[in-house]
Amino acid sequence: xxxxxxxxxxxxxxxxxxxxxxxxxxxxxxxxxxxxxxxxxxxxxxxxxxxxxxxxxxxxxxxxxxxxxxxxxxxxxxxxxxxxxxxxxxxxxxxxxxxxxxxxxxxxxxxxxxxxxxxxxxxxxxxxxxxxxxxxxxxxxxxxxxxxxxxxxxxxxxxxxxxxxxxxxxxxxxxxxxxxxxxxxxxxxxxxxxxxxxxxxxxxxxxxxxxxxxxxxxxxxxxxxxxxxxxxxxxxxxxxxxxxxxxxxxxxxxxxxxxxxxxxxxxxxxxxxxxxxxxxxxxxxxxxxxxxxxxxxxxxxxxxxxxxxxxxxxxxxxxxxxxxxxxxxxxxxxxxxxxxxxxxxxxxxxxxxxxxxxxxxxxxxxxxxxxxxxxxxxxxxxxxx
Length: 385
Ligand code: GLA
What we know:
binds alpha-D-galactopyranose, six-stranded mixed beta sheet
């Protein structure tokens, strides 16, 4: 039975009508971590793991949802919205409500969803969830879809309804991914540059199997530190400084005394990471895989020591990966505190890399990692036949 057959069978068990099918991918971020909410630069790629929906419009304003993987149902009335309840359905209902509040005349829908994006692993399972639901609701209501607007509304749903103050990266790449390319995104202007991945290299993702949870916790604290940094530095520097994006390493150095040691380190990570993204895009465009890899390694050190978002297992995984033949670079990817690493590996060394890293990581931690090579995919779309 194909995935589509399974979704169709589940749809028929739970709902009436003829379903239509949609998909939205998860992502891996090559470089540029915790820079998006600082108006900075990121360079993610959409991946093969995706959220899929089978759905049909309703004539009323109810949204009925069946999560195939959890075997659970949930329901929401757009005319009598309820607040988030710290439940998986928050992502779906928050997105629906946000679309409606933004003036999109969506109708109710019956939706079955299944997702292959591993949950809590730093591959944006929640963004894939939101973007697939948002796209599904707009498509079923016959509303023309602007995928940049869709990304912004999904981010708003996560910020305002779910309560996670994430940046735009995950929703943006899930909605706008480009096949065979990473996307360098300017998170202030939302301009993008598609950066090809040299065919001599593969992007390899390794799941540490250490799960993280962001909502309300350390993630929001990091964001608050960045805002504190801007509030302290902007008046002293003068001019129009609205985000860490506007602050150069020289400015930070000159005003270091204004910041606590912790805030200074947080700011130093973001400011240096922005520069690394710009350099990594140029390196990839020139086919300089060594230079790109060195920037990825430096990014990991900065996340580990300055931003303090890594963990013991991830550091072990990165150390093992960086020591393998054919590895250009390796770092943690995503929000942090566990989840996945991303490595840039010579195409002909990928099989050996996967086997050795899996064995060494398990020997060191007792955890069995999932390691796979991925090819950048297109963003949200109807599901192909
Ligand atoms: C999470 C957030 C993103 C981004 C990353 C860190 O994935 O959803 O907006 O901030 O963390 O780069």
